[in-house]
Amino acid sequence: MSRIAIPTRDEAPAASQPTLDAVNKQLGFTPNFFAVLANSPAVLAAHGAFDAPLGKTLNIKTREGIALATAAVNGCEYCTAAHTYTGHNFAHLSIEDIAAAKRGEASDAKLAAALHFARLVAETRGKVSNEDISQLRAAGYDDAQILEIVANVAKNFLTNLINNVAQTDVDFPAVTADAAA
Predict the structure, then answer these.
(1) pTM of the prediction?
(2) Residues 65 and 115: beta-carbon distance below 8 Å
């Protein structure tokens, strides 16, 4: 059971309700994570301000892979479930792709470099080596994209921390091998 309230739309502060409405319209439901954030309109707005521009940089497979790798490092059950679902349904990742992303791996060499680096950033709290950055550049990432990978790790750290503290009730359906077929 969640340690922080999961308000309904009408129970949430009025300033949070338009965002909850937009999320519901986009996904067809309001995930518990957004309801938890809605307790604080400032935190909900901060998440949106960080999330929106980053959703326009790296491609969706890379962003979802980073989310899965970061959630695995931080042991975030909610984010693992959420990004398994969104990775499968929106980025069209297979069950195998999802499992690899959690390990910071991918079959595509460029994506693998990004996910390996993202997982390394999460594990070392950003204390990566010159060689780590050189390997990412050799895979085809420029300085802007390196910063975007780091920012996506940081964004996912925020959601992992919130969900780990709140112990947010997981409300995403499980993705199974049958669903991926």
Answers:
(1) 0.94
(2) yes
